User: Fold DeoR family transcriptional regulator from Limnochorda pilosa.
Amino acid sequence: MLAAERRNRVLVQVRSRGKVQVNELSRELGVSAMTVRRDLAWLERSGLVQRTHGGALDPRLLAEEVPLRRKSTRHPDEKRAIGRVAASLVEAGQTLVLDAGSTVLEAARALEARPLTVVTNDLVTALELADRPGVTLYCTGGQVRPQVYSLQGSHAEAFLTGIQVHVAFLGADGVDPDLGLFTTNLEKVAVKRAMIRAATRSYVLVDAAKLGTKGFARVAAVTEVMGVITTDRAPAPVVEALREKGLEVLLARASQVREGEAG
Assistant:
């Protein structure tokens, strides 16, 4: 087998599995572990894989944690549309948890029901709601993540473990019907899971580009939340797969928002 052909087979395995081990590839390809390591090193230099201890993974699964200022400029019309649909689900007198992130921030901005009790782990969301009449606001506490302004860690998780709310709106960096909900780093997982447990109804708010994608850290199976709120730009097969699993999928009309804002 030529080196180029072997490297291509290695790359195919990395992309199909997401993560591979040197020993497994060595057995499957009938070559030495040293040869596999050399192939992985070559592929890494080409930017096609990322080596790990004993193997490699697909770097496309490592969604970067994007600073809030950059996040806010991505798909802004979709995020506003999603936020309005999410806010319409909230009724006067309810309690809710708002996760960190630019899409959930738009839901906070669109909230009209009063009175409300709101818990958030997002400093920007907290500032948005702090002076709103009829809103009782709590922050979870925890360590502040620079540039994204979210609160994470054991203090945030402990706060959420001690409450029960009507609704939780969560952000995510990937939603795959079969593999689950994903975020950018492991530190976020415990806090997001605590939000899901604290809520009677929980919804994931994501722009259409994140549907059908994966990330580095798995949060939960999709069936652990009640629904997904996205837009009419979402890929139809993914929407159908989510609904087949029993999720409520709400599609905001992003195209309508874009046209309205243009005028």
